[in-house]
Amino acid sequence: MFSLILLVPSHAAAGENEDIADLKRMLQELKAENRKLSQRLSTLERAPAARRINPATTHERATAVATAAAPAPAVAAPPAAPPTLPAPDLSEAAAKRPLGVRVKDLEVIWAAQENATRQIIRDSLSKTGPKINSFLSLSGVVEGVASRTGSFTGPTQENLALGTAELDFDIKLSDWLTGALVLHFDNGTGAIFPTGNQPVVPTNIPGVGVDRFTLDRTHISVGDLMQFPIAARFGVEVLHFGTSTGVARLDTLSIGTPLTTEVFENRQTAGGLEFAWPTPPRQPPPAPVVVPRVSPLVVAPAVSQLMRWLGYTPLPERPFRPTPVTFPFDPAPFYGSVMAYRGSDSIIPGRTKIDDYNASLGFRTRGHCGVPYDQLKDSLICPWTLDFHVDYDTSVFESRFLRTSYLPFLSQIGRIPGVAASLKTSFGPFAFVGEVNAAIQDARFIDGLGITRNMMPMTWQASIAYQFDWNPWIQEIGAQGDYISVGYSGSKDMSGVSILQNGIPTRIGFVPQHRLFLTGGEWVMDGLKVAVEYSANWDYPVSAGGTGRVAHGWFGLIQLNF
What we know:
Layout: H1 2-69, H2 92-95, H3 99-126, E1 136-149, E2 157-174, E3 177-186, E4 212-222, E5 230-238, H4 248-251, H5 259-264, E6 267-277, H6 299-309, E7 334-341, E8 356-367, E9 384-393, H7 400-405, H8 410-413, E10 418-427, E11 430-439, E12 443-446, E13 452-455, E14 458-467, E15 482-492, E16 497-501, E17 504-508, E18 514-525, E19 528-538, E20 550-561
Antiparallel strand pairs: 1-2, 1-20, 2-3, 3-4, 4-5, 5-6, 6-7, 7-8, 8-9, 9-10, 10-11, 11-14, 12-13, 14-15, 15-18, 16-17, 18-19, 19-20
Helix pairs in contact: 1-3
Protein name: Porin
Region (Disordered): 46-70
């Protein structure tokens, strides 16, 4: 019994020693954590002070050297310094806050200053723009399209495709010698120049195309129309006929293609002369203008709010003053071109001469109703622009669509001339495009069923667009912020013809009689555009060789521009 009594205090003493050891260990860990936080706090408090002192000293030395080296300008406004990020609170009250809170606040400020430094470096490098060297600059576009489209004769189809992948090299050796080279992605399955393996057995199953980059457009220009009224031009490019320039994203705001471009776009190897008159007089450049930024209103704010709900907190960025923009001089009001090219041997077999021509004559002007731009922010009419031109081509069946679709009959059709008239204008936040393209002679031939055909292809289009968050300094509607667009195009004598394929009559060479686009888009951030579109296509009636049906479609687009 006595031994048991002696064991009781020994066990109590051992338990007490273990508790004391645990407390000591926890105290040591707390001290170590406090030392780390104190060291981190000291580092964060020293870093902003050093950054505020050293750059100021460097700036003072640089300013002194620059002042001594360069004479003072006649009139100079002192540049306003950009707003600075908040400095850490080193007051006595702040020192009494919990250590962890002080460290967290300083870490946020430190991260913001690091982000601002990276932003300054990024902005400095961005001043070089897309230039590769002093003569060559690079730009381009990558575009993805998702679609659900109906057909006049088949089921509704869904697709996800690479709409465009393009690299543009712009060359400028001097104001008098410029050029361009554009490479375009092609999956090798198009009708223009298909590549890839062909089916082994005689069936209608197509071969698999081989992806490739091909030369899409290129040109050399000798002359400066801002200094002399005539320039020479040679290249592979789209000839002037209507509004098409060969760059769909610049020609229209819709995702789909207007019938005017689809039917009559004519890409050739051509050379000739351009002119613009009268030559603008030499004068000092206009004063730089700070252009207000157009903000996205739908997609970007929604995504930003969703990211915040999911816990993302963006780092604060140093605000910068917008860079003033110097707008270019207005070009000469009258302009035009005369180009020559060698047409297809399918139209005139065995031709030996360059005897096809394209000519264009246009007029352009702009105005602001005699009111300063800063007083036009609520205007629906001013500033305004107008660009009207007429075009003539000796052979409209040289266009890509007409040449490939009517290839079996081109030797019967021969050379068919055509004319085009187009108008592009803008009034305040609105932009309008109107165009009519047509052959001016009948094309007569016998189709694959022995039926005599007589056709005079004709297309037209009209579209209107509206720019949200508009301001008078915007140069192009739909090139920033949010926009909506409604476009209609139509055709005449384009119901198609019939040929025999494996003994079965097949309709070829047709486009819809009417086409409607309803488009909405937003530039979510610089260089990134998203858009959605509804389209409706009405076929020709059965009595005119069509199906009389309507095909509906939905499209979604994401486009990266760089």
